[in-house]
Amino acid sequence: MNDMTPDRNERKANLKGLGSSRKRVEDLRFTQGKGNYVDDIKLEGMLHGDFVRSPYAHARIKSINTDAAMALDGVLAVLTAKDLEPLGLHWMPTLAGDKQMVLADGKVLFQGQEVAYVVAKDRYIAADGAELVEVEYEELPVLVDPFEALKSDVVLREDLDPKADGAHGPRKHPNHIFTWEVGEKEATEEVLDASDVVAEEMVYYHRTHPCPLETCGCVASMDKVNGKLTLYGTFQAPHAIRTVVSLISGLEEHNIRVISPDIGGGFGNKVGAYPGYVCSVVASIVTGLPVKWVEDRMENLMTTAFARDYWMKGKISATKEGKITGLWCHTTADHGGFDACADPTKFPAGFMNICTGSYDIPTAYLAVDGVYTNKAPGGVAYRCSFRVTEAAYFIERMIEVLAIELNMDAAELRRINFIKQDQFPYTSALGWEYDSGDYHTAWDKALKAVGYDDLRKEQAQRVEDFKAGKTRKLLGIGLTHFTEIVGAGPVKNCDILGLGMFDSCEIRIHPTGSAIARLGTISQGQGHATTFAQILASEIGLPADSITIEEGDTDTAPYGLGTYGSRSTPVAGAATAMAGRKIRAKAQMIAAYMLEVHDDDVEFDVDRFVVKGAPERFKTMKEIAFAAYNQAVPGIEPGLEAVSYYDPPNMTYPFGAYICVMEIDVDTGEHEIRQFYALDDCGTRINPMIIEGQVHGGLTEALSIAMGQEIAYDNMGNVKTGTLMDFFLPTAWETPNYTTDHTTTPSPHHPIGAKGVGESPNVGGVPAFSNAVHDAFKAFGLRQVHMPHDHWRIWKTANDLGLHG
Amino acid sequence: MIPAAFDYHRPTDLNSVISLLQEHGDDARVIAGGHSLIPLMKLRMAEVPHLIDLQSIDALTGIETGSKIRIGAMTTQSDIINNTSLASSAPILKEASLQIADPQIRYMGTVGGNVANGDPGNDMPGLMQCLDATYILCGPEGEREVKARDFYHAAYMTEREDDEVMVAVTFDAIKGGYAYVKQKRKIGDYATAAAAVIMSKDGSTCKEASIAMTNLSDTPIFCGAASDCLIGTSVSAEDIKNAVASMIDAIDPAEDNRGPVEFKKHAAAVVLSRAIERAWQRA
Ligand SMILES: Cc1cc2nc3c(=O)[nH]c(=O)nc-3n(C[C@H](O)[C@H](O)[C@H](O)COP(=O)(O)OP(=O)(O)OC[C@H]3O[C@@H](n4cnc5c(N)ncnc54)[C@H](O)[C@@H]3O)c2cc1C
């Protein structure tokens, strides 16, 4: 007889599986300064690269003289476009089907563009060498406004045939990149014409930057003896980088090993390929020595992928009673000098067509025009799934404006337009199939939690007091109900450079009952080593503490498309569960053999297989693991391993209800966040503590974006916010308290019902903060002002409304 | 953000500092906490072939309190915050220091560096003008004194000669109320507008007043006329308005990422009226 203690609940707790607030295993090394980041990598004989960058936003390059730099002791090489041209590497493909200069080829298109690459014995000499490169520029007229760019006869991309189609169809103007249309244009316009009420507004989501703590960088190391290139880098998609490097360099893919070590935050900034990677690889091939390149903060802010910069003109119509009838949106998307957006190939504006949000909108139309300007390229999903935060901001602003137009409470307007629980799976007018949701429950819970009705009463009193001169502070209540679309995604419609967006997990169980699992994703702080072990623990009945999770080395991990767009849990997390189930299926046969019963007569119970109806007869997974290696089980191969490549049938649709209560000083433009309530529904919750951490972090980024953070340019195309003095990153001091909450609506198609959460707080947070600002001034006639709501812009709003007497 | 090469000197007495400055002329600069100078060197906006570290010079340290206060140039903002006797004889120093940068920077940033730097964003120059402080400079010919109110000519242009070292600042202990009110975008930011105010009372009328503003011109602005608007009054709303109006005439803010000129003037008016109200309450 087997021992029946510990009991079932205790055994479950010991696994630290799904639902456990297990402490993050990676934090031990991070909090002790023992992480291993790209800049920690030091290889024998390693050289250092630094860029000469353009001071101008648009200029022709007349000449480049590298003599003085080459003469400096310690400088080994200075690369220019001329040196890369014979290798065909002076341009590189972008993820969006465009191409981008690696080093300036005849002209520059944005301030900070890479012009020459200096390779030297140490980082200091490289910087000194870069100072000595003489570049003669001839300034050209600068276009920083996308609307002007579409009218101007100044042609930015002289390399493109103005009449030829771009990667996404016809171009209307030499500075035009693509038009992307979804939905029914005429039908929507008819609905707008026929509706009782139409609200119209231009909603601008300004240009900002993910600004991860660690900047982008790499170490390229070409071993000329065995012909292998090892590339360490801050890559959010190491496998895709390997394929891209192989395609553009001509090296066979098996001779390339890409390693993403610890990554200090990515937020989309580290998805794309940058000139620094190409130049470092070339420099290593040329010198036969390892070459390191690491951006400094200014280079990161000025040149590697920005986010947003969407001008969204919207029209929303409704009946007198507030039932929404149609939504129309035309977006002008400022992409900068090259189209380097990181979107699935068929989606040049990402998933912007999720812009119908949480609402049952019968008819809709979206068009997006991409435009070249003299700004840095990028357009990445900064802690959001491809343009989802733009879409969420757009619809959540339009709802507020419609509420004003209808003279209706914005919470009620949302409630009467939510997709109802029994409508799921719901197909939106712009083509998505929402997998699940229960918006009314979440919304009511949120309104109740903050005491919504009392807040509105307090606000009304505040307006009276303000008018009576008793206070100079206004109260804003910022509402948001967002729906995301994450987990790209089904290979049938999502690929990047032709690589289907599946993901993968490979598991090996060791004889003594511990395991290693490798995934195609890569953590940048999300805690994969913690949570993926929890998924497996619940699936295979071995403690999470006995499971090592490894990612980021393309020689050992299975192929995957990486971590961004909240796709790790929906895709790689699903692969993990599926691989775990394969392990379990084999374990079941081994257990049945050991217990001398038929396979169907045993069942899984937490950490063991038990004989049905005889719970005292069982084999633990630990015992089964050992048996897999030490017993010959007839008809079954030895060992216990599995691999799964998961192609999700659909995206997942996390949602949430956020409410921000904000006090605004109309004289100084300063704000204080009195309360922030965030309810998230991310389906099955793997690790509540990590979810809470992700929500706090994402909300703080949302706060930065809404209240101050921007990449601003002057008319000459100079970046005005190139350091952290002017680019707003909040400290603990600026960060408010957050109250987190949840409902749980599991995804019906995901193996464990999880939906992804890392990006929700950014997607939902930005409109919540921004709506609070708008709401504070609503009583005085404000409809729409643009973010960021920093002091002077809030002051200006108050001033324009005549609130300064 | 990689500085050009430089030689590092770390003398142990003031004379050696001055001879190094004389020897290398334009090529040499002293470094105190380095939190203004090092960023400039990393941006290659300042090239300093010879960097002379003041850390090992005892003559530049120490805080003396009493009716006359003397603060050595190498005193850090953190030292000021934690000096209890200073907190009672000149509490405005603590109030202002707590609004400078963040705790990490305040462990490094010094009074001497802050007042000698000449950056209009620094908070202590305005504060020193409000206190009517005297700077003690030491050069090849020995020590001399310069009034804080006469020290600043333009951004980074001061009365200090290249071969002089700031030794200490001195001023009288504060009588009456005080306030340092600063508007900034976030912790670690320089002022959008800041006001230093000291006021004393005789019964219910204002006996003395001193006002100086920060980051609203290319130098700190001591507002004598604005102070005069308060002296002899009961500091009514109307009197404060007059003082503010006079201050607005004296400043000349420039547009930057903190906002346009009109906003800066508005912010200046708000911080000054709040500072006057607080100082008067405390007087
Ligand atoms: C992120 C950040 C935020 C900041 N925010 C603020 C703020 O809000 N308010 C504020 O006032 N300051 C702020 N500072 C500046 C900080 O307070 C500086 O440390 C201070 O201004 C200069 O002091 P220091 O000792 O670091 O001087 P250093 O950087 O060492 O020197 C500054 C200049 O003064 C000269 N100098 C230094 N000491 C002497 C001396 N004894 N004699 C002659 N010349 C000398 C140097 O040659 C140099 O030119 C900030 C700094 C940073 C990095």
Q: Got a strand count of chain B?
A: 14
**H/I helix tally of chain A:** 20
Query: Stretches of chain A where pLDDT falls below 50 for ≥5 residues?
Result: none
Bound molecules: flavin-adenine dinucleotide
Measured distance between first and last alpha carbons of chain A: 87 Å
Rounded radius of gyration of chain B (Å):
19 Å
CATH architecture of the largest domain in chain A: 2-Layer Sandwich
Summarize the structure.
The complex is a heterodimer of chains A (805) and B (283). Chain A is an alpha+beta fold and 805 residues long. A 7-stranded mixed beta sheet of chain A has the order 3-7-1-14-11-12-13, sandwiched between helices. In chain A, strands 9, 10, 15, 16, 17 and 18 form a 6-stranded mixed beta sheet that branches. A 4-stranded mixed beta sheet of chain A has the order 21-31-32-33, with helices on both faces.
Task: Give your account of this protein's structure.
The complex is a heterodimer of chains A (805) and B (283). In chain A, 29% of the residues lie in helices and 25% in strands. In chain A, strands 3-7-1-14-11-12-13 form a seven-stranded mixed sheet, sandwiched between helices. In chain A, strands 9, 10, 15, 16, 17 and 18 form a six-stranded mixed sheet that branches. Chain A has a four-stranded mixed sheet with strand order 21-31-32-33, with helices on both faces. Chain A has 20 helices and 33 strands. In chain A, helix 15 (528-540) packs parallel to helix 16 and helix 16 (568-595) packs across helix 17. Chain A has 805 residues and is of the alpha+beta class. In chain A, a hairpin with a 4-residue loop joins strand 11 and strand 12. Chain B folds into three domains: 7-53, Uridine Diphospho-n-acetylenolpyruvylglucosamine Reductase, domain 2, CATH 3.30.43.10; 58-172, 2-Layer Sandwich (Uridine Diphospho-n-acetylenolpyruvylglucosamine Reductase, domain 3); 177-282, CO dehydrogenase flavoprotein, C-terminal domain (Enolase-like, domain 1, 2-Layer Sandwich). Chain B has helices spanning 14-24, 37-42, 77-82, 84-89, 91-97, 103-108, 111-117, 124-130, 148-151, 224-228, 237-250, 261-282, and strands at residues 7-9, 28-31, 50-53, 63-64, 68-72, 134-139, 142-147, 152-154, 157-158, 165-172, 177-183, 193-202, 205-214, 221-222. The longest helix of chain B has 22 residues, at 261-282. The radius of gyration of chain B is 19 Å and the shape is globular. The A-B interface holds A 50, 123-124, 126-128, 131, 296-298, 667-670, 708, 712, 720-721, 725-726, 728, 730-731, 733-734, 790-792, 795-796, 799, 804 and B 1-2, 4-5, 44, 102, 183, 185-190, 192, 257-260, 263, 266-267, 270. Bound molecules: flavin-adenine dinucleotide. Flavin-adenine dinucleotide binds next to strand 2, helix 2, helix 6, helix 7 and strand 10 of chain B.
